[in-house]
Design brief:
Distance between the termini: 41 Å
Oligomer: single chain
Number of strands: 14
Number of domains: 2
Largest sheet: 8 strands, mixed
CATH architecture of the largest domain: 2-Layer Sandwich
Helix content: 25-40%
CATH superfamily of the largest domain: Dihydrodipicolinate Reductase, domain 2
Strand content: 25-35%
Strand order of the largest sheet: 8-9-10-7-11-12-13-14
Structural class: alpha/beta
Order of helices and strands: EHEHEHEHEHEHEHHHEEEEEEEHH
CATH class of the largest domain: Alpha Beta
């Protein structure tokens, strides 16, 4: 495997050190082998300095261009809301630096395609933070399917219901998630993107999908309910329903994969457990510990890929497919 950077260490520059960088992602960049955080950036200088101080990072910026063009930074992590992903990817690519970008990859599939194009032209890799592809309990699901534990896969059913949050409009730190101009959609784009990307990892691309979406709760502009049907290139069928305006009694997160000899069920957000049910057999529950920094296994893959020591399973090409599928489902 070829190295994708000249150095023997990845020196990260992080654009947008908000909540996701507190525990989920950034601390792992100082823990995985051959990786360190060189500098961080946030438009609010006081908050940028505070983050750097609390995480023992020597260098901070309030200007993204200054960070991206820092000669000691050789890879860029874009941890901003989706509306800035394209802009900063273009700048990083033009500076000749690999990009690791938060999910969803962008607001639209067209923006994703532009990100892929600019990185290809610059000769730099593009990775997307769909970290479930590297977590042990999700890898167990892939192992069970590939080993034939449930026979031939017939269909997948995804169901997610969450209670309406009437005061979301007042919380500025979260409001961007339900503002399509910033996020591309609502909680469907924020949460279902993880679920759909993982199904892409299991079964390959979804070749067609259709659905209905609506705003039934009336608390914000984005959709709060989506129902969909879809088909993978391998012939597996699927249905999904996502409602973010339900009552508390309906609160649920469950995905079931049905095969010719059994089924696998799991939650996408929460306990790291996988339940296997097979004909004429007792149920088996596989339990795992989640890493403290949830993105660490995927970040290790990114670093290994950059240094020519491995391959990362979450790329711009796969991330763009998830945006395409969400558009098919929410905008049919």
């Amino acid at each position: 495997m070829n190295k994708k950077i000249k150095e023997n260490q990845v020196n990260w520059g992080i654009v947008g050190v908000g909540d996701v960088c507190e525990v989920k992602s950034a601390p792992a960049m100082n823990l995985v082998a051959n990786s360190r955080i060189e500098a961080v950036m946030r438009r609010n200088a006081d908050k940028a300095q505070d983050y750097a101080k609390r995480h023992q990072i020597e260098k901070w910026y309030s200007d993204a261009d200054a960070l991206i063009n820092d000669p000691k930074v050789n890879a860029i992590y874009i941890a901003t809301p989706p509306d800035a992903h394209l802009e900063y990817t273009i700048k990083a690519a033009n500076a000749g630096k690999p990009v690791y970008v938060e999910k969803p990859m962008a607001r639209t599939h067209a923006e994703c395609q532009e990100m892929i194009s600019v990185c290809e032209k610059a000769g730099v890799p593009l990775y997307v933070a769909y970290y479930r592809r590297a977590l042990p309990h999700f890898l167990k699901i892939k192992e069970l399917i590939e080993s034939g534990a449930i026979g031939d896969v017939r269909f997948v059913e995804v169901r997610m219901c969450k209670p309406l949050v009437p005061d979301i409009i007042t919380h500025q730190t979260n409001h961007w998630r339900v503002n399509p101009e910033v996020s591309g959609g609502g909680y469907f784009y924020d949460l279902a993107s993880h679920q759909l990307d993982f199904l892409d990892f299991l079964f390959g691309p979804i070749r067609k999908a259709s659905g209905y979406s609506a705003n039934q709760g009336g608390q914000y502009k984005a959709e709060d309910i989506v129902t969909a049907s879809f088909e993978f290139t391998k012939g597996v069928l699927g249905t999904g329903s996502w409602c973010f305006a339900s009552g508390e009694v309906s609160d649920k997160d469950i995905t079931t994969i049905v095969g010719s000899k059994g089924e696998i069920s799991y939650v996408s957000f929460g306990k790291a457990e996988v339940t296997l049910r097979r004909d004429a057999s007792e149920d088996k529950v596989f339990s795992f510990d989640l890493p403290k920094h949830i993105q660490q296994p995927l970040i290790q893959q990114v670093v290994d890929d950059l240094l020519g020591n491995g391959m990362c399973v979450s790329t711009g090409v796969s991330g763009a497919r998830t945006n395409q599928v969400m558009e098919w489902m929410a905008n049919s």
